[in-house]
Records
---
Amino acid sequence: MTTRYRVEYALKAHRRDALIEFIKGLLAVPFVLHSQPTAFSGANLEEMAAESHRRYREIMRDIEGLINDHIACDAAGTPERSKLRFLVPSVGRFFTTLFLEKAFMEQDRRRAISSRRFVAPSFNDIRLILNTAQIMSLATLDGPTKLITFDGDVTLYDDGQCLVPTNPVIAKILWLLERGLCIGIVTAAGYTDGARYKERLFGLLESIRDSADLTDAQKRNLIVLGGESSYMFRCSPSHPDLLEAVPREDWQLTEMRAWSDEDIQNLLDIAENSLRDSMKAMRLDATVIRKQRAVGIVHARGGKFAREQLEEAVLGAQKILELSDVGKRLPFCAFNGGNDVFVDIGDKRLGVLCCQRFFGDVTGGQTLHIGDQFLSAGHNDFKARMAGTTVWVASPAETVACLEELIDLMEHGLPDY
Ligand code: IMP
Ligand code: MG
């Protein structure tokens, strides 16, 4: 069994989220004991659902306690005493408490998780409970949320598409700006001039320009951080691109100033070689794109790569770079962009930190990053977890739903459960 477990783990480690798997495992026990047998015994379904609900709720309350203990241990400088870290060694940092019990009640109301007899609480059930718990705590805790950062592709708009004027996320972002919140779009898409970002984001930028409700200062509270953490532009309604470049001194972190050009090119050379090796080994019909601070492969004829091919190319590049000297000096991000693979200099931890610095030392607990790529390897929103709180969405529609939830709680507070 142990060997089988280890083999499975080695095969799938990069496709798993350890905390979600842990919670899933805990909820599986009451599911097996209380829900599943009723599928065969004809027992009273209402009683079954009530019992499962009670057990699931208790477990979520216990995990909420584990997270509070974890936060307390980190704050006391004794991270090794965290019970949660003992149970889930790879777990990261939590910037706020998570209202998991209340979030479970809310998601159970919406998704009827406790009423299911054949399908156990799933990865998506737990991802959504965690999202709601994070939103509930941000909307109702004392330290008000100051900054919301968004990934671009799959979070604000469909993969490779643009933010068009009919996108329902626009009204939500305008609402947040009007309440004095700062917004950052932290995307891997790396362009050196504002005109390219205007092409991708025009629906939002034009709505901000035309808004009669936003003050000039509020309009300027939206920034774009492209290439993970490489180029910053600020919303500027009078500029022809609706965006103006922000000088590096105003936003770059001290640690980024120490990067040498030689190291950057050296890292990109290693990455490019690895991508070319992958192209050859898997006979990929791909074109290499080399930029100032990124290198990637895209399909040469507009076709589709298999997910396995994309992941293989990402993990190959990542491993080689991790083992290289320059990869130990420079932060980088190798990721699967859906139908392309990119290696960028910098990452979204730095991207979110730059936004925090630019808007005046906003803290991690005052920041929410919304993205779709949170697996530990091959996904580029993952590192943002080190800079602030996060919400993991699966589509632009889910982003809108999360913002609706946040806005509703900011306006009306938490309901009684
Ligand atoms: P994100 O989801 O907003 O982070 O955007 C990721 C996508 O941007 C990638 O999948 C690429 O298709 C595209 N992209 C364009 N330029 C770059 C670059 O320089 N680095 C990484 N991705 C890029
Ligand atoms: Mg994305």
Note: Residues 151-154, 187-190, 227, 291, 294, 296, 337-338, 340, 342, 344, 380 surround inosinic acid (ligand 1) (CB under 6 Å).
---
Amino acid sequence: MYSQEEQRSLFDLSKAYLNGGGALQQESADEQINKLRRLIEYHEYRYYILNSPVVSDPEYDRLYKMLEKLEAEHPELITPESPTQRVSSDLSSDFPSVEHLTPMLSLANSYNEEDLFEFDAQVKRYLNIPEEEDIEYAVEPKFDGGSIAVVYENGRLLRAATRGNGTVGEEITNNARAIRSIPLRADFAGLGIYKAELRGEVLIRKDIFKKINDQREEEGLSLFANARNTATGGLRMKDPQEVAKRGLEAFIYTLGYAVDETGNDVLSRFSTHQESLGRLNQLGFKVPIEGVERTVCKNIKAAVGFCHDWQEKRDGYPYEIDGMVVKVNSRELQERAGSTSHHPRWAIAFKFKAKQATSRLLRVEYQVGKIGSITPVAKIEPVQLAGVTVSSVSLHNEDFITSKDLHIGDTVLVERAGDVIPYIVKAMEELRNGSEQPIEFPKHCPINDTDEPVELVRIEGEAAWRCPVCVCGAQNLQKIIFHVSKNAMDIEGLGKSIVERFYELGWLRTIADVYRLDYDKIAELEGFGEKSADNLKESVEKARQNPIHRLLHSLSIHHLGQKVSKIIAAEINHVLDLRDWDLEKFTHIKDVGPVVAENVIAFFSNEHNIKLLEEMEALGVNMKQTEDDLPKSASGEGPFVGKTILFTGSLQTLSRKEAQAKAEAAGAKIISAVSGNLDILVVGEKPGSKLKKAQALGTVEVMTEEEFLERVG
Ligand code: IVH
């Protein structure tokens, strides 16, 4: 449809407009309108047909608004073919077309609270409602999947269609029948409805999406880019059996059409949006859960608050949502407000900050880890992702670069979801212009700043290249950073940048140096002073007394994590006992695999390491087993064995971490969201939506912090 060159020039032109337009704005309105229309058509094609946008939603919207503005200034230039004159199309020729009973419109978008207040003011102006009066709004998630219209006649599912171009969609009834949350029959007669059209969104739960992709990876198939593509792709599969396997779900968000047997419109029987969703829920449809996922707000201010709450909760929600939808609740007011050819005037989407964006891969830098693994890091043109500027993205290892076929100069799709570190989803091959350069992974240690080149090695079965003998000290620095970090010795006040500073000053060369710092000198450093030096001294003092499982974990032994460190610590009296341990002895302990065992043996057979530990012991670092090294409850025992647990709200006597540790010691497994899998919810103060959701499920045991403490003893 578009050649590679065309795509490249459309992409560059889009970026030029988005970056302010410059010379473009000197062109005639006619020319600019034509250009913007071509750009918008292209981006709609990438989004709706290919399911692979090259600009973010806000960027697309800005282009769209530029066009709308120019057209408003020059109405004589508006033609019926302009993208502003119809909703976007996702039609393809694989399925028969069917006309919707009423057009499926799009939504107006907003990105901040001012936009929402302006929307409220606009609705009031349009409806002649005085400014000081409140309008009631229903607010619910904006599901990020594929839209669907399902028609019921005489209580039976008659047909289902995708949105298509809004007027005509693709008929996908057989596929819709494979979606369990779409009832095949529903008692519409009880509501006096003979024929109805419901609109909703077809989605796939994030964890199921992940499972599907994991499975595909195992089978060597290409991976789906995201949950949305998996859902929209699922709707259009040829074989309904395959659709059923994908585990799609449909959330209904509106009743678009309803007539009785004589063909009379009966929509007005539902006085509010809230009521119609409630009724549909009673008929067996999946709708956003009342009071949790959707709510009625008495005015726009409350609606803004609900939108903000959800922006925070977005990542913990089991489905992908890209914003919230604010809808005038009263059906009568909705009818009075009516629609433009593009969207209803009574609703607006509040879009969350984009999680994906395109950027350019400028160069690759390399970092060395604590055991010498070389990690390539892509430096990209800075982009805004979910409210944060991202300019560095890890490329993990050479295989990652090869599997994604990344080149310097590529336009890349970058994603940052919640707390997850940003990553490169893919390179946009279709935007290459031939100037891109392959990334050549170095053969020698790229960090080494001495004159002695060190050849990198790759251990069989591992993805990383490693620098086997560090001659420049860079690995020691990483070891120290890890040694003092929170999960290891947990030395407060000795963060990464301070370790780097002390390392530069020559004060830290090995982990033993941490215990011989000169606090008088530290107090004199700029930015320190007596107080911080004293605090640091205290933290180091505390670390000297740490249980030995922390010390074991802090030694940067490859693959030796917190859990196995604890298991090993429980078996020894003194850390140096491990000098006498052989593979045979390790094989008797459950959960310690041969690879970790070999690594521990290698570490304790190395004279330098033993000297280092002896030095540390002489400096007062505890090497003997303590109470804390012994398991609180033998695995398979405890009051919560086999149960899943989740904490919500602020706990009064325990920190979240302590509570989780106690729960684990009692045999429970911690999970992160309320779902059908959850057994126990422990509620602190201000528990919020998790509690409501758990109560709605009806299968979750809810307990207070006090009750929890009693149970774990
Ligand atoms: S209301 C006539 N509510 O967003 C009202 N739409 O960008 C128009 N969407 O095509 C739709 N969640 O597929 C509405 N809670 C929700 C929604 C929702 C997702 C989709 C819908 C629509 C698109 C518009």
Note: The longest strand covers residues 356-368.
---
Amino acid sequence: MSAKRRVGVLISGRGSNLQALIDAAKAPDYPADLVLVISNVPGVQGLDRAEAAGIPTSTVNHRDFPSREAFEAALDEALGAAGVDLLCNAGFMRLLTEGFVSRWLDRHLNIHPSLLPAFKGLDTHARVLRSGARITGCTVHFVRAAMDDGPIVGQAAVPVLEGDTEEALAARVLAAEHRLYPHALRLVASGQVAVDGERVAGIPVRPDESNGADAPEGRGESALFSPPLRGNF
Ligand code: GAR
């Protein structure tokens, strides 16, 4: 088997998506090792989750730096020292400069709680509810300089139900995020998909070879859609 990718994770808070990646990476055949977790916010729950899993952590507080560039230089230094070659944002809530994004181009993933390109930015679920949309979901994509923008690796669709509150909808989408992100990272880390221009291209696989990522019946979620599966449902 080829060498595992060395993954760094950027967080700002709770770290439940980080936990999903930690749990997935325990499987012997998972193609990625989590080698460093960096938070830009001190003392967050995600740091505790990483420590409990024995993953090295670092806090790089953006407030300690005079500029975005200086903050990002500190991120780069920590990531370089840990030998990170693939970066995952997991609830990382800082905008990154074009310089940082270009240094990690096509080696940097983000998860966002909507079906991009719809509902970029903050307060996603409240805006989905106000819009009257009947379907929302989550997206894992390669990072570009524009916020919540970039080639899409995978998406999961989630229904908006009558009477949903923001909290209920967020929880339903979060459950889908926890299944999508490990699946998407597996596709990227194993080389099954890669960026081709501004889209993600993959090796076609049959739906029954989709890493067990399809949603079980009755959980109110659609199947996960990733490039190899697109059009097969
Ligand atoms: C997740 O819902 C993630 O999609 C979102 O923040 C939450 C973090 O939760 N990210 C964004 O909105 C990025 N634009 P977590 O810390 O428990 O993983």
Note: Confidence is low (pLDDT under 50) at residues 206-221, 227-233.
